[in-house]
Amino acid sequence: MCIAWTCQPLAKADSKLLLVQRKTIVVQNFLWLVAIAFLTSSLGCNTQPTGGLVEGSLTLNGNTVSGNAKVVLMNMVSGAAAAAPLEENGRFATEEHLPPGNYVVFLVPATFAENEDETAVPKPKREGSNAVRDVSAIPRKYWDEATSPWSCAIQEGANQCNLNAGQGRA
Hints:
Blueprint: H1 12-43, E1 52-60, E2 63-66, E3 69-74, E4 81-85, E5 91-93, E6 101-109, E7 133-134, E8 151-154, E9 157-160, E10 163-165
Parallel strand pairs: 1-9, 1-10, 2-7
Antiparallel strand pairs: 1-2, 1-5, 3-4, 3-6, 6-8
């Protein structure tokens, strides 16, 4: 059923105009899709992480310190933080990149589940000027972010942060 005012035939000029408008809209939409695809793909091209990695050592009055602990670096402004396990030779290194800034450095005990071998016999301590000290000999103030005097300024790239209990930053 057709009502007269809805069934008017289009003039040829009108139909050509509609066809041109549709093509223009299709081309515009296609160009927007190409632009969006290009922008989103270019965002993923920067695969190199930004920030800094930190490595260092822990000593107590010049003696290497090892034990069941982690060295934590925490930015008190941004909340960015990373923890690095303390190795047998007193060294530590972060695996996560940290944003540039100033970080408070402190120790936390590693959890029981993180111990590699709970039945291992402790290794004897070396004698001499570089004697290995157990991490439990580190004073309590270094185990709390509020009281630790250690700090480290992190920049883009590799950062060195050597810590000596008994003084601030070595």
